[in-house]
Amino acid sequence: MSAVDKYNVESAEILANSALHLPITQAAPIYEQLLSIFPTAAKYWRQYVEAQMVVNNDDATKQIFSRCLLNCLHVPLWRCYIRFIRKANDKKGVEGQEETRKAFDFMLSYVGADIASGPVWMEYIAFLKSLPATNTQEESQRMTAVRKAYQKAIVTPTHHIEQLWRDYENFENSVSRQLAKGLLSEYQPKYTSARAVYRELKKYVDEIDWNMLAVPPTDSCKDQMQWVAWKRLLAFEKGNPQRIDSASNKRIIFSYEQCLMYLYHYPDIWYDYATWHAKSGSMDAAVKVFQRALKALPDSEMLKYAYAELEESRGAIPSAKKLYESILGDAAQTTALAHIQFIRFLRRNEGVEAARKYFLDARKSPSCTYHVYVAYALMAFCLDKDPKVAHNVFEAGMKHFMHEPLYILEYADFLSCLNDDRNIRALFERALSSLPQEESIEIWKRFTQFERTYGDLATMLKVEQRRKEALSGTSEEGDSALETSLQDLISRYSFKDLWPCSSKDLDHLSRQEWLAKNIGKKVEKSALSDGSAATDKSSSAATGISAASLKVLRPDTSQMVIYDPKQHQGTAVPANTTASNLSNPVASVVGAVSNPLLNPSVSMLDSGSANTFDEVLKATPPALIAFLTSLPAVEGPTPNVDIVLSICLQSDLPTGQTKKSTNLTSQRTTGPAPSTSDLSGSSKSHPIPRRQLG
To answer: TPR repeats: which residues (predicted)?
Structure first.
């Protein structure tokens, strides 16, 4: 499979199915290829190992089990393992039985908590019952082993918990009814609690797709729903007050391990698992989880930082440093952020000199950006309390990042903390003299804001005028940049969210500014009203301060034309369209329908289509055509209902059958016809004469 189709589930299923029909020598490379991509796919491991078991390749079978069992806590796969063990030890007598018993214990220690492990417990108990006992002591030991197995099984929430309880009752009663009464009364509450947990647990387990393959996160609804289902199951296991093994965390560990079989490429699951171990006091277990996570996701920079943080928090500084160095050693991950984080790490753990030394080396890196200079300068200023070093770092950065407006602004903020207004003004002047006009907008904005806050009136007005002159040719200011507006006054005398005018005034000014910018365009009246009404209180407030927020994309209304349904590309309005047709659009449409020569769309039809259209016209009821032609011209999007009803009542609509028409006319109860004023579009209700239909 190519890199593009690496995690293609459909292709993987096709390969797996094809391997079923091949000899093991040909199928093995296919399985190895699949399992290198899906290392937690229990169904592929099981298919692979069963293919080896069929040909009695015991060595290969053992090797496969050693690779997959501990990472795939899947009951069918483990039952395949116990079947292999029982077959291998079947003819070894007592020694083989002991090996099989150890294999059962090993299996139950890993998958005994699975909700589907009921058959495993039953098989184990049946195996214990089948062990031979040559004397009373061995019989007693066998009964004790069976009893312990039952007592563990009936407190485990599985699908077969009720069946196991019934079997346990029968077992105890078959041994001793007197002893059974005490034991059953002791374990009845535990069984009842486990059954209640099972019923709750089943709700979460039923939402999980157990055949899902582990693929990287996608935006598909199915993958997201599976993530939600697993998070809900994990939350249930963590917070369930009725959890059976409350003294230990085996069920939570088991749930996380099963989850990672399917969400193997999800960094948040690995992180949650490791931090849960750390919060539980198992720091070594958390370290092992992070190591497995980086093996699964070697390119995850997030997990590397999380792992380094854990090591640093527990005092393992050398291990944490190696992790940072591994990030810096990866060309793809060596970014400005990696340099910054390593400088901070060195400053925390090795001191000022180590951080300074690495900064001097990082400056020479191709991945060093202005962020590294800013981060180190602020660290020297805030942590080392050394403004001189910080100032020197900023000045050194000016040699490389004079063209970066954001670096200039960071430098200006630093100088503001020093109350160095003289150097701030000098910095702005240096930057504005070197930056292109398009990139100086934010610098001018900060410069004017600085003068409005800390400068005198003359300096304030001078900088504003310089800004307008400098940006007069950009889209930021437009043609009206040189004109003084009330917006400037509002900006000068506002503070944070305090304004020298009301919100209504801000709204009005923002509309005026929009109109001023579009004054040279041919703008429709409706477009102006729509554009001016589109701003709310908050947006207009922001518009009053910054002209940048007024850059709203609007259509060019000067290019708009009135839509006419009678005009099509390559056609024109028919010459014989009369004034009556234009005053009555419905009548003109009906006329065009009744006469195909007047309809441009009909004139483009071929002869076959025209004949079909004629057939449609013949089938049109005359009453419908007569009704449409009698409708008057109505201005507006919605006709007046009263007018339509009045026309219907006063019109003699022809029908296909003359006799029925005569009868209907004679049966109609007439009333006073509406006056001319009633047809003018008045919204008053009119008396509707009753019509009796035959």
So the answer is: 267-300
